[in-house]
Amino acid sequence: MGAVGGGGLGVLGLPGTAVAAAAATGTVYIASDSTAQTYNSRYYPQAGWGQKLSSFLSSNITVANHAIGGRSSRSFIEQGRLAAIHQVIRAGDYLFVQFGHNDATVGNPERYTSPADYKEYLRNDYIRATRARGATPVVVTPVSRRSYNASTGKFNVSFPAYVDAAKAVAREEGAPLVDLAAASRGYLDGVGIEGSKGIFLWLAAGQYPNFPNGVQDNTHFQERGAVEMARLVSRAVAGLGLPISGEVVPGVR
User: Fold this and answer.
1) For residue range 143-184, what is the model confidence (pLDDT) as tens digits?
2) 114, 172 in Cβ contact below 8 A?
3) Nearest alpha carbon to residue 145 among 177, 105, 97, 175
4) CB 48 within 8 A of CB 35
5) 245 in Cβ contact with 239 (< 8 Å)
6) Which residues does 225 contact at the CB level (< 8 Å), separation at least 6?
7) pTM (2 decimals)?
8) Are 37 and 69 in contact (CB under 8 A)?
9) CA 142 vs CA 14, 16, 73, 145: distances in Å
10) How far apart are alpha carbons 239 and 233 in whole angstroms?
């Protein structure tokens, strides 16, 4: 499986046999933030789910991860990052779009995007403009943070207004939806509050050279968490009934 990070371009896999010719081929482009970003070795063990997605897709599919930290649905457009994807995306490709974390930062005018505006950016710039290029947009609800109710031990819905807006616009536009908000919350409920520290970037001092003082980060993932979130995305994709659905590796579906 080919994987291109840091805004690189995907390469179409060319079928070599009659059997392969019947399979879906193409590139999955990811437009998102730091929760999906590809991190280099200087940040290990920090990782994003987009960085691990290729492990769950066949070699017919290439992943071009354009996710980058600190971006909202609006700033990703304003900085020309979506335009860069639209310049190279082609028929048979996919655009997975997940925002919400930075859209919700009311105190940061460069990032903040109201739920209503977020919905329209998804509609016009990510869904309709991608379809106009012959590619398939897939709306991904924002992945859960490590936010929980201490009384019940259950995890909270992160960014509920943005989750609702993403689901609504996907429904209105008939776009495929990966409800990663619900899937990740269900997964975290399963591992529990203490176990979730091994999913998020909770590291002890001296545990990893790149984080000598340790860290307690309730938003970003360490490698295990990124793998599990990518698994959840892939499992949802397998059920969408798209050509790419059959390219999810056996055992994940």
Assistant:
1) 999 999 999 999 999 999 999 999 999 999 999 999 999 999
2) no
3) 105
4) yes
5) yes
6) 47, 198, 199, 200, 201
7) 0.90
8) yes
9) 33, 37, 11, 9
10) 10
